[in-house]
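pls read this protein.

:::
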Amino acid sequence: MRDEEQQLVPYEQERELQRKYREAKERREQNKIKLIRDELVTFYVYYGESYKNSDTPDPRSAKWCLKKALELQKDHPIANYRYGHLMYADTEYALAAYHFKRAVDGSLEQCLSDTQRLIANIITVNCGLIMAKQAIQEVDEIEELYQDDPTDSAKREDYLSRMLVESEELLAQHMYLKVTPSGNEYISKERYLAEKETMKENEIKICVTPSYRVMLFQNWESQTISQTEFYVAHTILMSAAYLETKEIGEALKELEKVIKPEAIRKCLSRLSINVSFWDKIVDTNLKGNYSARRRRNGVKYSLLCHSSIVIP
């Protein structure tokens, strides 16, 4: 098992940090213990995020790294946030809700960004709705099974009368999200589908679900984009100011999306070549000696997505 684990993170770096951590604990050097522990946690979180967010994700390796981080710091917000996403993908909804709650609570020194807090709360709602739906199904089955059994019938009726969720319509009310430069809004599936099909003049939309990412613009043919292209395009379209490649990377890094400048440049090249209406929605200009991009004046942008989607 150890040989396999060694392949997940740089072994020499991990071993050196672990050695320093053990020695600090043996000497009971509290300041040093915390400093090195924080380095180790950052180390494991970085590789956990890398495995989780790559274009070819490796959830198993991501879980191993994030578990290591949480063993060292149970209240680390980003480690809990990333691990919550992995649990949600595994349909472990109770565990996902637990880790998202810890992520939102944060620690004395760390907290999620506003966007991450929004996402964590949205997915926690989804977890609760899914678990509620499953529980309702079990309630219906038990009620049918014991409908002729007088034992505790009054107690069952009392609890059934207190049920807050009575239809699948309520469960679906907050399953989708509309994101615009002016703010975010929870929407229903019906609203998502209606907005996806309704295009106004000079309006660009990106629609994202777990299975696809497409850009829609007026009467032009829709364009499918990759995950990294989505992150880059979304960052530019949310901005009214010109962004250089470096600034796009910094904006994504602040939101825990680490994309190297070279990868961003390649994305921009692919978007300009493959998205036929790219120049209609994005204005490119020089900012000093570098090319910079922003949403064109008069263009309205919105992201429509399932609320489980991790957005930048």
